Amino acid sequence: MSQGGAAGRGAAKPQDQGWAWMVLLAAVVLQGLTLGFPCCIGVFFTDLQHEFQASNSQTSWFPSIMVAVLHGGGPLCSILVKRFGCRFVVMLGGLLSGLGMVSSSFCRSISQLYLTAGLITGLGSCFSFQAGVTVLGYYFVRWRTLANAIASTGVSLGFTLWPLLSQYLLDEMGWRNTFLIFGGILLNCCVCGAIMRPIQLASGSLPQSAKPGEEPGSRAEEAQLSNGASPHQHVLQQHTRRTKCFQVLQKYLAFDIFCQNKGYQIYTIGVTWMMMGFALPHVYLVPYATHNGVEERKAALLISIIGFINIFIRPFTGLLSGHRVFTGRRIYLFSLAVLLCGLSNFICVISAEFSVLILYCVILSIAMSGVGALTFQVLMDVVEMDRFSSALGLFTILESITLLIGPPLTGLLVDITGDFHYVFYNSSFFLISAALFMGISFCALEKKTKLRETSKAHLDNSTRYQYSETSTEPKAESQSPPAVEYITSI
């Protein structure tokens, strides 16, 4: 078995000490290079519009595709992690990200940017980011919540530094040379991947020849069907292939978890709906500010303010949510943070003055710190760690759909009306409704689970009482039906 595959498949004894903290440091840098990078695209929004004579909707497809692929490439990333391990996938992602941005510097149309910066860079960022998140789950157990919160500060660092660097390079050498330099910077993902050395598997793991879901002798049966098979056997062979295809999809997209785990189902639907509005301020805040007379350097500074405040708030949020008081209740903290994000957007509607926009960025950054620090921790709470990679794949591919269509649809609305306020109206609607849905649904699910546990305890007590009263008489064997367990959080 390859050493790289060990890190992707599982760990014998993840340790919260030693080299794990070097892996955490690499994860911080990695998230800054990947998740933090799309925030700077708003700095180039106006220049790209003028360069390619594109509308708001056409230009917004470029960051939308990048962010959507970054999140939606999860299933493919899961397959690669299972096969080659986290280290290889992170380094592959770094190569793709750098290649995409270098190619983008030579683009002659906005549609070419969709392919290079959007698809290639987005896919590379997806590989690096999601494999980095997965390996953290194996290196940390006791301090997992804190580790995820600290790793997410890398996003805050990215939010702080990328816009400032982008504006400086844009003023000095133009967007093409800036994209070329960005390609070299993103290659540092390969360095982060090299640090994430594999963890050895437990001694009782399955041998390489025995693959999950494969029956003994299935290969021989398949060979018999393919050699001199009758029409009926051909139909059987096609059915077998379809069944195996479905098993692969189920393995890497976690459809079984989505159907059986109500907590995962509610959380995935809520976050998917939330993403329709979550990315809108990141894409349109800088164009909105410059449209209302704010200087370009000050407009770029707004995104950096959001990131700078996040650097300090995210670790605090991680420590707070990791306290045992919030065990099983982190989803409510997450819903509250999403609700605050939605309400903060109304500040931009009131005024577009720079001082007001700074107040908006402060409040938004506090709310975003909760969302960023808790997103993957809540997912780890509602699913088992050995299925986390698969659950993450389905989770991210669903949210990538709304991330893809959200900004372009809002940009089309802005093109038609000429009013940037619709950006913040739309964002508030999706965020507030998603927060209420997740909070109310998990509250109802928790009450339903408690009611079932109470009924089961009452039934068990009744059974014990009947047994003590009639213990001297022969009794027919009977068992109460097992209680249904709904996994909401750990």
Automatic annotation (TrEMBL):
It is a multi-pass membrane protein. Keywords: Membrane, Transmembrane, Transmembrane helix. Residues 20-451 form the Major facilitator superfamily (MFS) profile domain. Residues 462-481 have a biased composition (Polar residues). Residues 462-483 are annotated as: Disordered. It comes from the Eukaryota. Its main location: membrane. The chain crosses the membrane at residues 21-45, 61-81, 88-106, 112-139, 146-165, 177-196, 266-287, 299-319, 331-351, 357-379, 391-410, 422-445. One of its GO terms (cellular component) is basolateral plasma membrane. One of its GO terms (molecular function) is monocarboxylic acid transmembrane transporter activity. It is found in: Membrane. It holds the Pfam family MFS_1. Coiled coil: none annotated. PANTHER family: MONOCARBOXYLATE TRANSPORTER, MONOCARBOXYLATE TRANSPORTER 6. This is MOT6 protein. The lineage of its organism: Eukaryota, Metazoa, Chordata, Craniata, Vertebrata.
